[in-house]
Each structure stands twice: as C-alpha cells, then as structure tokens.
C-alpha cells in the first residue's frame, strides 16, 4: 500500500493538475517527477487568473498546448514549508541578454504556465496542486500578513507594475495618467499614489473606474501629465497618452502585448518636447521582490482582497477562465 508524505503519495508520487487541451480543461492525476539539483517542489495554495490566460483560452493568444496554465500563484515549498511566490520567467543566465541584465528576455527563456504538458516540464503552471520550479527560478518569501488572494498576483501583475514604474522614473509630486483599470492599472494607481504622485485614471468601464478611485486614483481631467503608463493595449489610448505628455514627459507601454494598429509618432514633437517612450515586457527578479514588499506595506491600506473572487477548486477552473464578474479584477483557484 502507498504511504502518504504530506499531501503526496509516496512510492509513485501523484498530484492533480488541470491541463488545458485547446478545447477545455482536463483534470489529470499527474506523476511527480524526481527533482534535479536546484529544483523545488511547491504545493500551490492559491492561483489567480491573469488576463493572458483568458486570451489563451479564447484563442486570442497563441500558447503551447496541452499545458498547465497559471502563472500568478502562491504556495509552500514541500519539505521546508516556506511560503513563497515565484517569477514568471526562468532564464538561462548565460546568454548575452542575461549577461546584460535583461533576464526577462533571455534567449532560452522558459515561462511558468506557458510550457507544454507533454514536454520536459509538465508541472509548470499554477493550476495544479503542485508545481516544479526549475533551478534558477526567482523565488521570493511571502510574509504571513499578506493573504493568499493578495500575494498571488505579485507574480505577474504587481511585479510587472514595479518594472513599469522603474521605467517611469521619480514619481513624487508628478502628474501621472494610468490608462486601463484592470489589475495592473489599479495596482499602478496605488503604487503611484503611495510614491507621492497625483494619479488620474481612464477606463471605459465605470465599475473599474470606481475600483481605481478606491486605490488612490481620480477620473481623468484631460490635462497635461508628466508620466503616462498604458496597460490597456489600445492603440487609440497610446496615441492619446502621447498627446497628453508635457515637456520632458515619459510614456511607458506595458499593455501592448498583441499586434494592433500602428500609432502615429511625430518625431519633431518628440524632439521639441523632449519626450521618452519606452516599453516593458515581463520583469526582473528585483521587481518581484519589490512587489511582495509593496503588498506587505499596503495590505492594510488598500482593499486588495476585495478585487479577487472567491476561490474555486480545480474542478471549477473552467468556470474561472472567463472575464471576472463586475467589481472583481481576478478570479481565483485553490487547487
């Protein structure tokens, strides 16, 4: 008879995973592989559903299939019990991009929740009872004061915001426009407000605008700004951001992750107004560390847990892979 070690079965250890097949979710009992040197096995306590997973299942975003999706999660390391979140990207550490400090764009990058289930890393996503973290993964401890529903988005939404704000520069006393009041936009709103900025937010959804106001934002008034950060991915919104920048202004693009219409750019305006336009995709390990620290510092200030839905089990994942209900920014899964 098999014996039980923690929540894994020894003598042929098994766990459960929700495998995206391209047409639906298939719950499978999965073998837990023997760990190589440097690898960690983590029990997933809670995962949140990022918009990119919704794009995958709706066919708007190409992704490896079959796969275990889910890249925003929090859990405990099997063996030590350490509560952690982990980065989306796993870099090789050897290529020219890694050596230049851009590990997020590693030439050999592997990504949590983006790998084939029938490949070399089957337990790669958060929609499973356990995940295997390869050697070289960014793993950050999470204080117990941060609830699971608050901690899980750190691994994508919050860390990406930290990377975007790094590109924006000093925020204290600055006029900031946030385009898009999804999870990233609302998180950026709170982070900018904490840093001393005056923050305006624009989003066509009135419910999301109400949420943004609870996190330190105010409705856009159309005035000039020092910094604009776009999380919407809308070419129309990006063009409007450019028009709104005052002299010396900075535009950070973080939402344009799928092809869209080109945005006209007047080189003379960039030169004469001394503008900066930059982009952010994924993030570096330091940004995940900053994300956890920021959430720990603001968990009592902003209602983070109110924008994440009541968790469902793995058997309810299919119902969670849809846009969240009004008033929520994330669905949640408790494997």
UniProtKB/TrEMBL annotation:
What organism is listed for this UniProt entry?
Rhodococcus zopfii
Enzyme class, spelled out: oxidoreductase
Q: Which InterPro entries match?
A: ADH-like_N, ADH_phosphonate_catab-assoc, ADH_Zn_CS, GroES-like_sf, NAD(P)-bd_dom_sf
Gene3D superfamilies the record matches: Medium-chain alcohol dehydrogenases, catalytic domain (3.90.180.10)
- Specify the protein name: alcohol dehydrogenase
- At the top level, the lineage of the source is Bacteria
Which controlled-vocabulary keywords does the entry list? Metal-binding, NAD, Oxidoreductase, Zinc
Please give the Pfam families that the UniProt record associates with this protein.
ADH_N (PF08240)
* NCBIfam families associated with the record: HpnZ_proposed
Which positions fall inside the Alcohol dehydrogenase-like N-terminal domain? 38-143
Record-stated family: Belongs to the zinc-containing alcohol dehydrogenase family.
The EC number of this protein is 1.1.1.1
Which cofactor does the UniProt annotation name? Answer: Zn(2+)
